[in-house]
Amino acid sequence: MANGQNVEVVAAPASRVRIRSAWLDRESFQGFVWIAPAFLYLAFFIAYPFFMSIYLSVSSARVGSPESHFVGLQNYQRLFADPTFWQTVRNSFVFTFGSELIRLVIGLPLAFALNRTFKGKRLVQGLILIPFVIPIALSSLAWKWMFDSLYSVINWMLMQVGLIDYPWQWLGEPGLAMWSVIIMNVWRGFPFSAVILLAALTAVPQEIIEAAKIDGAGPLRRFHYVVVPIIRPILFVGLLYSIVFSFTDFSAVWLLTQGGPYNTTHVFGTYAYNIGINAGDIGQGAAITLFIFPFLALIVIVMLRFLRRES
Amino acid sequence: MSGHRVWRRLRADYGPYLPLAPYLFVVLFPFYWMVITAFKRDSDLYNLTTAPFWFKEPPTLAHLKLLLEGTLFLTWLQNSLIIGILVVLITLALALPAAYALARMRFAGSQVMSTGMFLSYLIPPTLLFLPLSQLVRGLGFTDSIWALIVVYPSFTLPFCTWLLMGFVRTVPREIEESAQIDGCTRFQAFRMIILPVIVPGIITAGIFAFTLTYQEYIYALTFVSASANKTISYGVTTDLIRGDVFYWGSLMSGALIGALPVAIVYAFSLDHFIHGLTAGALK
């Protein structure tokens, strides 16, 4: 009797422990535990501020003043009536797609040039990627100096070879300033494009190329009919990343021109900073940044659909 | 030897390098220009009459001296390194378990969470800097490097989790399962079997977290204002422009030295770096 009771007393906690450990081991519970820290962090520092910016965009929030109240769509109405905002939208697209196009055009030959074996390939590849690695804030100083109104070394070179006959104001002339910003953005980003393209090219099996060669296909036809279909998915995803990267850029433009001259190089990021921080109008600034979102959403939808179809 | 044959020899010997030469020139010239500018005397720098590509007067260390003695350059460097290292540690501590769970466990909402991870990678600092400036002030980090330390993982974490998931998937499930049958808990199996195998992935993720952090600009510009709390790229680009005067020599020496830590990390981990770069786009 006493024995029996003892057994019961001992057995109950033991089985409870076993049940509990089995429960803890179950993936449905453990999965949450393992992912919880990252999930909570992202919820607090990405999801929450994202919704906060939606609220800010319909409020009268200002830097340094604690009071803000709901103002409806007033910030948006002011934006729509603001010619500089429309200029910013146009600039953002010119900057993004201009940079992207040029990156591809000059990145592709580079990828081909790197897609063979030669001595020192690793070194060359390492050097080519430097602009992408060095903080753009720091390398932009070199560009600002090379585009200087008086001491521009680029002007000096172009004038020596006779391409221009007077010093260009790279950062001071409306149309030219956008080109200058694009040039620097291309310089920074084409190594990335080239490396992605190279990774895609090395994924093309050599036998297929050889087979096409034997069948009498020239380099252009081989590229169009054999290489492109194989590298298309990688190219596509790499391109979209690169577009997002350019579209949401802040530092390259800010450091080179601060959006000037006459707002001709303002992109979403720089204009939002100018209004939200420099002018202190956080509500209006938040409304500007939110215009990035539909564009990003579109990219994400295209990307997810594409990835699903490929797999 | 005919000219034709000389050309053929040249092509055979240097063929692969010829198309690369213009690229290398464009890529490297700005850095060459930084070095030259950093060590030229002002009288040489602002001399418009002669070719600017080399020293006409003896080089000088005056710009470097101004940088080190006239600004808080070393403090900025220290800030950037402290922030970089702490952000790498926080990122890995959060990303490793998350990557393991997403790659290995099936649980309600795991699909949603992995999509969410991917989406948050695409929500850029440009979209979040205004509300985050209010958020960090609310947390009590007004004008402090801690504001940056707590916020920076928001862009390193999604990317590193994504990257590490790929590495976890390469470990065969069977090894882990046999360890669990032998009585290991999940955590022990993770620590003793997964972690040692994915060390290359951890290094790659660490390198990326560090370089992304070191490059960040808009958050630093928005959250911090005192010179002693600035990061390197923020400090160099603001404190050496006084009014209308650009201290070009010092700006260039600051940019060069400031770029060194990433350049060194990068030089020692080129293969990891390229792998991570392509993995980010390919997976």
The overall number of domains of chain B is 2
Radius of gyration of chain A, whole Å = 28 Å
Structural class of chain B: mainly alpha
CATH architecture of the largest domain in chain A: Orthogonal Bundle
- The neighbouring-strand order within the major sheet of chain B is 1-2
Please state the overall shape of chain A, judged from the principal axes of the Cα atoms.
flat
Please report the distance between the alpha carbons of the first and last residues of chain B.
Answer: 53 Å
CATH topology of the largest domain in chain B: MetI-like fold
CATH superfamily placement of the largest domain in chain B: MetI-like
Quaternary structure state of the chains depicted: heterodimer
Average pLDDT of chain A, to the nearest integer?
Answer: 85
CATH topology of the largest domain in chain A: MetI-like fold
**Main beta-sheet annotation of chain A:** none
Q: Please, how many helices of chain B? A: 16
> Could you tell me the radius of gyration of chain B in angstroms?
24 Å
The CATH class of the largest domain in chain A: Mainly Alpha
CATH superfamily descriptor of the largest domain in chain A = MetI-like
Work out the strand percent of chain A. Answer: under 5%
CATH class membership of the largest domain in chain B: Mainly Alpha
Distance between the termini of chain A: 66 Å
Quick summary:
The complex is a heterodimer of chains A (311) and B (283). Chain A is built from 15 helices and no strands.
Write up what this structure looks like:
With 311 residues, chain A is an all-alpha fold. Chain A has 2 domains: 2-57, no CATH class; 74-310, MetI-like fold, CATH 1.10.3720. Helix content of chain A is 76%, strand content 0%. Chain A contains 15 helices and no strands. The longest helix of chain A is centred in the N-terminal third of the chain and has 32 residues, at 83-114. The termini of chain A are far apart. Residues 1-12 of chain A have low confidence and may be disordered. Chain B has 16 helices and 2 strands. Chain B folds into 2 domains: 3-60, no CATH class; 65-282, Orthogonal Bundle (MetI-like fold). Chain B has helices spanning 3-14, 20-39, 42-45, 62-70, 73-104, 110-121, 125-138, 145-151, 153-169, 173-181, 186-197, 199-215, 218-223, 232-239, 248-267, 270-282; strands at residues 241-242, 245-246. Chain B is flat. A two-stranded antiparallel ribbon of chain B has the order 1-2. Helices cover 75% and strands 1% of the residues of chain B. By secondary structure, chain B is an all-alpha fold. The model of chain B has no long low-confidence stretch (mean pLDDT 87). In chain B, strand 1 (241-242) and strand 2 form a beta hairpin. Chain B starts with a helix and ends with a helix. The chains are: A mainly alpha (311), B mainly alpha (283). Chains A and B meet through helix 2, helix 4, helix 5, helix 6 and helix 7 of A and helix 2, helix 5, helix 6, helix 7 and helix 9 of B.
